[in-house]
Amino acid sequence: MVNSTAAITFENIEKNFGSLRVLRGISGEIHRGEVVAIIGSSGCGKSTLLRCFNRLEAIDGGRLVVNGMDLSKPKLNYRQLRQLRSQVGMVFQQFNLFPHLSVLENLTIAQRKVLGKSAKESAQLAAFYLEKVGLFDKASAYPEQLSGGQKQRVAIARSLCMNPQVILFDEPTSALDPELVCEVLQVMQQLAADGMTMVVVTHEMQFAREVASRVMFLNQGQVEEQGSAREVLTHPKSDRLRAFLSRLNEGVRS
User: Fold this and answer.
1) Are residues 224 and 46 in contact, defined by beta-carbon separation less than 8 angstroms?
2) Which residues form the signal peptide (predicted)?
3) pTM of the prediction?
């Protein structure tokens, strides 16, 4: 039974890459207005789970419903995929901006081609969101002229232009120099304050502690522990989670 208050429901989902079993009967829910941080060691299935939520990967078993759309089906048609990706935004680790397009063009192209908006309407919305992420003056710049933090803020603004119901973030700060991380996290904090439903794969524990309403710790393709961010990160029950957090703390101290 799918919970109508949930933006995302996943029940016993499986995902394999050849003989490698990546997601092992994983279940859970993401509620509307929640900010859920997904944490865990490399290779535990975090990014794969996130990519399933946007049908960048198809599941091999179980049931997955995202914003009312059943993604358990082996095939979706073009209309269904377009609808899904207009409702569920994705911000990637490596930004994925079009290098040959200006910042403004990066923000307007999907609005025009997917949503059918006019050039004027899409440009107005792009300007609004560039202002929101503090990059209005970079509208005519090209990605190669931006810092990593600026590129990621443009990527967030591009996602917002599609008026998504949910935004997925795949380690949005891991490709950034430490001094640029803060500017991206500030934008994400504001989105959380505005009530955006967000699922964030991250190693930024301070962000998870302060902004996430819930944390899910994945281990070997399963949810090993979850709960309120403060409870899970301050009082971990799992030995594996305690070891994971200890390794992160050692990395910060070094």
Assistant:
1) no
2) none
3) 0.91
